[in-house]
Please model this.
Amino acid sequence: MSKIELVNICHAYDVTSCSNLPDKQVLEDDYVIKDMNLSWEDGSANALLGPSGCGKTTILNIISGLLTPSYGKILLDGRDVTRQGPEERRIAQIFQFPVVYDTISVYANLAFPLKNAGMKKRFIRDRVEEIADILDLSHLLSTSSGKITQAEKQKVSLGRGIVREDTAAILLDEPLTVIDPKEKYILRRKLKEVQKKLAITMIYVTHDQHEALTFADSVSVNRAGEIIQTGSPAELHAEPADPFIGYFIGSPGMNLLDCSLKDQRFVFRDFTYPISAEMAKKLNGTIDRCSFGIRPEFINPAGADQAGAVTMEVDIIERLGAYKILTLSRGDTRLQSRVPDSFSVEEGDSVAVSFPEEHVKLFANERRVY
Amino acid sequence: MGIIVENVSKSYGGKKVLDNVSFEAKDGEFVTFLGPTGEGKTTLLRIIAGIESPDSGKVYFDDRDVTRVAVQKRNIAMVYQWFVNYPSMTVFENIASPLRALGSKIGKDELQERVMATARLLKIDELVDHYPSEISGGQQQRLAIARALVKNADFIFFDEPLTNLDYKLQEELRVEIKRIFKKKSKGCVLFATPQPFEALTLSDSVGFMHRGRLLQYGDVNEVYHRPNSVNVGSYFSHPGMNIFEAPVERLEGKTLLKASDELVFDVSHLAGILDADRYILGIRAHFLSTGSADGATIPFAATIELDEVVGSNTELHLDHQGLALVALLDTIGDFEPGMEITAYLNPQKLFIFDADTKKLITRTGSH
Model:
C-alpha cells in the first residue's frame, strides 16, 4: 500500500512533454489538467468528485500509468514513477463494467494475477480463499464467472485488484454505475469494509456526490481540470470553498444571492438585512459586492421577533416526509428553506425569515471570503 | 375534466400486466402512480392516453366513454423518460409543432405568443433559436414539457420524466413541475414514477402499483400516513420504512410488543384490537436518531454498518441484535462502520401490521 502524490500535473492531449510549468493563461486555454497538486495518504479512502467532462478519467489514466502527463510528477511513497508503466506501478483499476473472464471459475479469476506473478500453488489457494472470504464470494469459488450477477462480478474485479499483496493502490472509476439498484447498497458497504480492513489506498472517481461522500474520508472536488477543494464530507458541506461546491454538495443546494454591503446592512435586490457589529468589523473594507450563501436548513422561518427578519411569501411547499422544503419569494428573489414536517404552513402564507450569522458564507470572485 | 378508470385489465402474451384497476381522478388533480419499474404504471398511462386499449374495463373522461376513442381525438400530451424532441427543428419550432399540427385554427401572432409564453414558463425563452443538440439534458426535458403544455391538453401524462437527469437537475425540475401545475385549472396530470419523494411532493392523489394491481389509491396524505399494507408503507417512504417482527407479551395487565429486549413497546392502550401473538411493525427512518430529542424515545444499542451521505442528510444503517434498521439524520455526521452507538426510536410513530395478511391494523400514536 502506498502514498500517492501528484506534483504540478499539467496535461494537454497535443503536448507530449514540456520542460517548464506552462503559464496560467496557456493552462487556462489549452490544458485539460491545470497544475494539479494532490496527495493521498497510505491506506486512505478518497474520492475525486466532479461533473462529466471535468478531466476525471484523464487524471485516473495519469495515476495508473496509461497516460504520461505533459508536465509534472507522480510519486509513489516518494518515488518518482512518472515514466513507469501500469505494471511497474502495481496500481489496480476497477471500471464501470466488471472485468472478469466469463468462461472460467470465480476461483480461477481471483487466482489469475497471482499465477501471473509466479506464486506457489499453496500460497495462491490460501490467499484466494482469504480474499473470497472478505468479499463474501466463498460459496461461488467453483461457479463459472459467466453465471454470477453484475454485483458479484464487480466484487470479483475488486478481488483481482486486492489479491496481490504488493498492490500499491486501487482506482475505482464509477464502479457502481451498472449495478442493479437493489445490489448497490451491498457493494457500497463492501467497498468501504474492504478498504478499512486491508488499509488499502483507494481513489474513487465519480460525478455522483452520494457515492463520493459515502465512500471517502477525503473528497477532492474537481472542476474543469482544477481541484477546488479537498475535505471531509462534513467540511465540504459546512465550509464550501466556492459557491459551486455550496450548490453542488447538499440537497437542496446552498442559497446564493447577489448582495452588496452598505451601512452595516446586506443590500439584496429586494430587501436588506442587518449585519452585526462584530461581523461588520471583520468585513470592514474587505468587500463591497459578493454572493451571500446560506443553506436551506439554516434559514429560520419563524423569526418574526428577530431583528431585521424579512417577510417572504411561501410559493411552493415540497413535502419530503421528515421535513418540508419551502420555496420563498420576495420580488424576484427566491430562497429555499428546510423546515420540520411539523412546521405548519400553507402556500400563499407570509413568513418572516432570519439568517443566523454563524451560517452565512460570503463569496467574492468565486472564492469564499467569509 | 376528470377521469374514471373502471376494472381495467391487460395482458401481454398471457402475462397479466394490469389486473382490474379502478380509480377516479377529479378535474384539476395531480395524480401520481408510484411503484417499482415493470409493475404496470406505463401500461396504465398508455391505456388512459389511448395509445393502447384494455382487454376489459372502461375509461371515461368525465361521463364520456372513451375506451375505443383513438389517441388523436383525446387531446392529451405525453412526456417521456427520454427527451423526445425533433432534432432538426429549433426550440421555437419544436414548441410550435403541436400547435401547427392543429391546422390553421391558430393565427401567426397567437402562435408566436403562445410559444414564447410557454418557453418563458419553462425558462428556455432565451434558447428558442437553438437546436435540441445544442442545449443540456435538463433543458431538453424542459423543452419536451413545453411541447406538452403549449396546446392546452386536457390531460398531461408524465412517464418517469426525471429519471434520466442528474440529481441537481431533478431537484430543480421537480420544483418547476410543482410550480407550473399548481395553477392547472382544468384536466389532470398523470405522473408515473418509482421515486417515493416525487409522489409525496408533487401529488394530490397517489396510487401504489404492484404487479399490475392498484394496491392503494387516495389522497396523498392519507396514503402516506395510513398505508394499508406493509407493501405500500415500506415503499412509500424515503428512505424505505424499517420493518420488523415483534411478538406480543401480556404481563400484569400490560400488552407489550417486544422486538428485542431493548425495543419493547407498551401498547396497552391498543390491547382491545391486538389479539394475535405477533405483529409486523413499521417505522420511518426519521423517527430513529442518534440523540434523544425528548424523554419519550427508547434507547437501544446498535452497531453502524454504513453511513450513507444523501443530499444534506445521513442515512445510518444500523445493526441491532441482528435486526437491520436505518436512521435518517438531518446532518452530515462523522461516523465509521463498526462504531458502537446508542440510537433512539420514537415509539409513538409505529405502524402495526397483521403478521399474516400484512394489512395495517393501527398506529401507536398520532403521525
About this structure: Chain A has a mean pLDDT of 93. The longest strand of chain A covers residues 310-319. Chain A has eleven helices and 20 strands.
